[in-house]
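Lab intake sheet, docking and co-folding queue.

SAMPLE TYPE: protein with bound small molecule
LIGAND NAME: 2-acetamido-2-deoxy-beta-D-glucopyranose
LIGAND FORMAT: SMILES
REQUESTED OUTPUT: full 3D complex as structure tokens
PRIORITY: normal
SUBMITTED BY: R.K., bench team

The fields below were copied directly from the construct record.
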Amino acid sequence: MDLKLICVLSVVFVAALSTLAEGKEVPSKCQCKVPPRERKNCGYPGITEEECRNAGCCFNNSIRNKPWCFAPKEKKVRRVCPDGAHIRVNCGFPGITRNECERKGCCFRPHPAGVPWCFYHRTVEAVC
Ligand SMILES: *[C@@H]1O[C@H](CO)[C@@H](O)[C@H](O)[C@H]1NC(C)=O
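RESULT FIELD (auto-filled):
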């Protein structure tokens, strides 16, 4: 390949990457509970609610002289052991002990029969 072609290809590649990065995750209500005085501006003056949310930011125009479009807080998650036996995802092997299971960082509940006793956590968003 000649140098010119490599140049063109890398420009195309970078353009494709930046398009991907635009698909931002929508912040949760919890992440948008930011006290007005801690709000960090996320948009430009006059940004609409839709544009703001599309940029992955939070919108709240109830306080006039604070940013309406602001950066969300980091998502807080916690790990829980799922309740339903039927939704367990096996993390061990038949006969695994509690110790072996917990060393793998998994949940252990030695009941009922016929489902994994050592199973993976789920992550849920923490309450705020
Ligand atoms: C906007 O912010 C105010 C002040 O923090 C809060 O009381 C209100 O519930 C918020 N509104 C929405 C729709 O989140």
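REVIEWER NOTE: Residues 98 and 108 are 6 Å apart (CA to CA).
SIGN-OFF: pending second check by T.M.
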